[in-house]
Amino acid sequence: MKNIVILISGGGSNMAAILRGAQRDDWAGKLGAQVVAVISNRADAGGLALARERGIATDVVDHRAFASREAFDEALAQRIDRHQPSLVVLAGFMRILTPGFVERYQGRLLNIHPSLLPAFPGLHTHRRAIEAGCRFAGATVHQVTAELDYGPILAQAVVPVLANDTPEALAARVLTQEHLLYPRAIAELLAKES
């Protein structure tokens, strides 16, 4: 069985979409894959309760308890490795990971970013797309590399930028596409590896 560990920092809406996709499409039966753990850097992350309700192991590694980014990443990796993951999936995990962490999970570490990468890496993607006069925005699932929001693109979803869009309205439209895109991209990657 291929184990998937999901990392979150907040409410976990993308995590929930992945869990729904895994259940709906029977990843265990069709792909030999299952989500075995959800780990957060914040004890108050709402997604932890949802994971527990679904019978998925949860854990918290509070980044504030560590003197350095490297020390946090090492502690996080130790918790992840307990689950022997085939994939580590970032779903709203709001920490920049060190090159050593990324290298440890090279080719097995995925992220979703709310822009059509390589455009607008980092934060405030929707405001920046509107200010740049973009006609389209979207979301990108990619393999994580040491460079922030960079790496091989696995899938993208496109939404129009409307004339009267606010960053919040655009973000809401993009998020609905993220919830469709991420589970599908994970399933496609797992199917290729079967």
Task: Tell me about this structure.
By secondary structure, the protein is an alpha/beta fold. The chain contains 7 helices and 7 strands; from the N terminus they run E-H-H-E-H-E-H-E-H-E-H-E-E-H. The protein has a 7-stranded mixed β-sheet with strand order 3-2-1-4-5-6-7, sandwiched between helices. The model has no long low-confidence stretch (mean pLDDT 97).
Q: How do the helices and strands line up, and which of them pair or pack?
A:
Elements: E1 2-8, H1 13-24, H2 27-31, E2 33-40, H3 47-53, E3 57-60, H4 69-81, E4 85-90, H5 99-104, E5 109-113, H6 125-131, E6 136-143, E7 153-160, H7 167-193
Parallel strand pairs: 1-2, 1-4, 2-3, 4-5
Antiparallel strand pairs: 5-6, 6-7
What brief labels describe this structure?
194 residues, alpha/beta, 7-stranded mixed β-sheet, 7 helices, 40% helix, 24% strand
